[in-house]
Amino acid sequence: MRFVKMHGIGNDYVYVNGFEQTVGDPTAIALQISDRHFGVGSDGLILILPPANDVDAHVRMRMFNAD
Predict the structure, then answer these.
(1) What is the pTM of this model?
(2) Sheet order of strands, 60-65 included
(3) Element (H or E) spanning 13, and its range?
């Protein structure tokens, strides 16, 4: 899985481009990837996705916190 990890103001998240990749079970992946001892280490996972059909936007974000 390709990702980018970004941090600022005490938080860090792993971002995945949902335009190019599919994350099968984002809840489980968020828990695994967020583990600071056995994973990348983060506060959670954010998927950058295409917008919903009824919204005039460029992207949509789905956020999965580690807790």
Answers:
(1) 0.89
(2) 4-8, 11-17, 44-49, 60-65
(3) strand 11-17
